[in-house]
Sequence to fold (292 residues):
Amino acid sequence: MTEDDVVDDLREELLTIGAFATRARLSAKALRLYDRLGLLAPAHVDEVSGYRYYRADQVERARLVALLRQLDMPLARIAEVVEADGEAAAQLLAGYWADVEARLAGQRTLAEYLRGRLSGRSSEMYGKFVVETVDVPAQVVITETRHTLADELPAWIGASLDRLEEASRECGGITAPPYVVYYSEVSMESDGPAESCVPVADEAAARAWVERQKRARETKVRVEPAQRLAYTRITKAQVAHPQILAAFEAVEQWIAAEGLEQAGPCREVYFADWDAAGPEDAVCDVAFPVAP
Fold:
């Protein structure tokens, strides 16, 4: 049997792209796209004509790829699912859908928040926040700075504050609640930067600690001057986006109504045990420095 005979026999066992597309209930265009994306390669491509041929047992994979794309699943995650077996594939899909539902829940809340603003109910939203002022003494802080988008922010805040609180043991201990400063907007389009800060007792030890860090450009020590903060206290549930936006705007509105002037970037001051707190427990002050 010649090589051409082998190829002819192979072709008889395979389906043309048209026949395969009919069986998979997909278009030939979709199959070419899946091939280009590395999700479903033909079993054989004729070197002369360029015709694509598929095995009948590839139909299930083709249909699975098409269904996963209807879920707006990123291509990299589709590749992981179709390469996994049984329960592992199901778990990958479950993990992706949990992420989708969390994102949709956040978008739903944001839509409600924006509806309130657009309908003129802003005063109702802001009225539930009590704004006060507090004078904060000068303090030495060790800090970690990062450019981060909104979806990465919660994880980074927790991790960076954990690192800084661990380091505080070498710097005389923590002297005041940790906080996060926002030097520019953090959203899905804007990446800050944000700065996690932990006040410590020993400036010399803090500077020595920074010198020992390999991440010197991200980790710093500085003395923050005494200042007055206008703030509102919020619960753990209100820290979630976009509820926290209403808190920031309420403080800004109060500052303007009182004829005061903002004197620095906004911040979140975390004074409670986050893991132990319930949804309605106060955990955070949303604050702006104001000119005395």
